[in-house]
Write a structure and sequence with these properties.
heterodimer, A: mainly alpha, globular, B: alpha+beta
Chain lengths: ~210, ~170
Amino acid sequence: MNFKKSLREGLLTNNPVLSQLLGMCSTMAITTTLFNGLGMGLSVTLILICSNVVISLLRKIIPGKIRIAAYIVIIAGFVTMVDLLLKAYLPALSDSLGVFIPLIVVNCIILGRAEAFASRNSVMASAVDGLTQGIGYTAALVVMCIVRELLGSGTFGKGVFGADGIRLIDAQYPALMVILPVGGFLTLGCLIAGSQWLNARMKEKEEKK
Amino acid sequence: MKYILKLALILLLITVVVAGLLGLVNYLTEDRIAENTAKKANVAMQTVLPSASYEKLDVTFEGITEVYKAEGGYVVRLNAMGFGGAIDLMVGVSEQGSVTGVSVISHGETASLGAECTREDWRSQFVGAVGGLQVKKDGGTVDALTGATVTSRAVTEAVNRAVECVKEVRQ
């Protein structure tokens, strides 16, 4: 088990958003402010670690034929717990993310990791995988949020640093389009291109060695 | 047959354990969530029409969730159909039938566009209105939010509805 390698996979070479292209729905919908992105990223990371650990623990008990049903029940359980806890202790975040917290149940990243990793690896390795994939997801969201919030609303950290955040562009100039879905696609496209370029460059360097 | 039973039993066991844990978490958070919701509604009522007490009226109107009698007026809770689903609103209306305040409890509008309907400086333009409002685009006087005409229309229409409702209640 190699944490560094796993982290590199989660962040770059096998990033859930930028390389596996999973969890697109939430990525498009909530990356409008840094506050949302951080909240969503951390919620998904927490759920991913928990579900990976439990599924890895039960991997020898759950028969192959009912594995998807079993995974979904476990994932839905954790998502509902996080949803209730957010509603109770972080109502502002819960209001802001709204229906996208319950929708984590159908986020392919979590089922994808359960199926591809946790169901055939040890508990410890699965926990690390959940953490690094979660970090990768959060990092991709945060970059998208910062770009879209800055270009679309002209602020940084709305909700994180005070209710209005730090205003960097005067209120009348930002391009509203960036906040809309079309801006989400454009930002994501550029981000994927950037990460692919970085991946290719790193691969080249390794081959030269 | 035996194999199918085994599958069902394992799945049953997993669901029972998950359900039990969910019940526990629900039990632990239930009170706090109810408290948060009540607090939010209360804060909204206090902003639209400050009063020492609110008495829930036993009336039913189409499209109106709840009506409260406050000191010097009424508070109406209702839904507006916004761009991203229902917007839960609280509208205060004085005895004379003019709007004293509008507050958004929850909404699913686009961030930075429709979501700006929660801004105090936008909501305050409804204060003093006596119904029949329209956004400027439709020939009225209400300043619509930039890029969020649907949201602005929905809120405006809901404020009109609240005023109409209070008119009926007073009679």
